Amino acid sequence: MIHRLVEKELSAGSPRKSIWVAKPSIAEKERDAMMVMKSCPEVTAASLLSPDDGAQKVGAFSAHQLWVTPYRPEELYAAGTYPSSSTGEDSLAAWTRKNRGIENTDIVAWYTLGFHHVPREEDWPVMPVMWHDFVIRPFHFFGQNPVLNLPNEP
Fold first, then answer.
1. Cβ neighbours for 102, distance < 8 A, ≥ 6 positions apart
2. pTM for this entry
């Protein structure tokens, strides 16, 4: 299940004009699960290359930070098995064009972590360390909070 933030307009008598609400939806197909992250996590660079650029055709996975595909043992590498000789037709972007179902099946989540770095004079001769990470946090995994029934004693 994906929660997308959407604007909700409030009635004329409200002190506010609008709020945002989390609209739940289930990603049934691959295209429903593609995401471009805009806030969390902090490091979410999408490619700036034109979609018809050769490097972008091979690295098309960088157009979205999150992709979800049904598990297929032959689909192992987001840019194809041999990216340096690939045309992009054996990659994540090509597989998801089929828009296969992902509901109620084993899935693979593909996350692209990246950043754009504009070199500065201060980066030479040693570039500062830049840390990147992300968190996978499940939700709606349990029907209720499992710790609510724990004994009150240590």
1. 27, 28, 29, 30, 32, 33, 68, 69, 70
2. 0.64
